[in-house]
Amino acid sequence: MSCTETLRDQGYRMTPQRRMILTTIHNSDHHISADEIYEQVHAKYPQVNISTVYRTLELLKELGLVTETDLGGGRFRYHSVEKGHHHHLVCRKCGRMFELDDSALQPLEGVLLRKYGFKADLSHLAVFGNCVECRR
After folding, report:
1. N or C, which end of the chain is more exposed by having fewer CB within 10 Å?
2. Do the beta carbons of residue 95 and residue 39 sit within 8 Å?
3. Residues 6+ apart with CB under 8 A from 61
4. Dist CA 11 CA 7 (whole Å)
């Protein structure tokens, strides 16, 4: 289902602002912060303000169109669900990020369900620690 259809099915319109924000997220080569989204959208459309970006991100997150991940640095990053989910290992010391294969988390998901009766959402996750270079 497209973003427009998802919004419409939930009683929302695809406004020009929502389209600009979704396009910016989708066109990003990396996870993008609200400030970065605002800068890119505002450069083309100065009438858009930061509160519109935050409100739109909340709505898109609630509707399952974007993921929000804490990758460190004191701000959340956003990613289009259309690009698929993946996980990150984030080094606290040097800040490098490594992609973590989905299969590494499958056992954890099963343990959480069996042992704790907890259905975890592991669709987009960051795990913090220290990389091999920083542990030397």
Report:
1. C
2. no
3. 67, 68, 78
4. 6
- Does 38 lie in the same domain as 71? yes
pTM for this entry: 0.73
10 Å CB burial of residue 7 (0-12, 13-18, 19+) is buried
Helices (H), 33-130: 34-44, 50-62, 106-116
Give the helix/strand (H/E) hosting 27: helix 16-27
Tell me the CATH number at 124: 3.30.1490.190
Q: What is the pLDDT of residues 100-136, one digit of tens each?
A: 887 888 899 899 999 999 998 887 778 889 999 998 8
Task: Please give the Cα distance from 41 to 43 (Å, whole number).
Answer: 5
What is the enclosing helix (H) or strand (E) of 103? none
Question: Cβ atoms within 10 A of the Cβ of 29, count?
Answer: 5
Residue 108: give the domain boundaries: 87-129
Q: What's the rounded Cα separation, in Å, for the pair 63 and 132?
A: 38
Across the beta sheet with 87-91, what order do the strands follow? Answer: 97-100, 87-91, 125-129
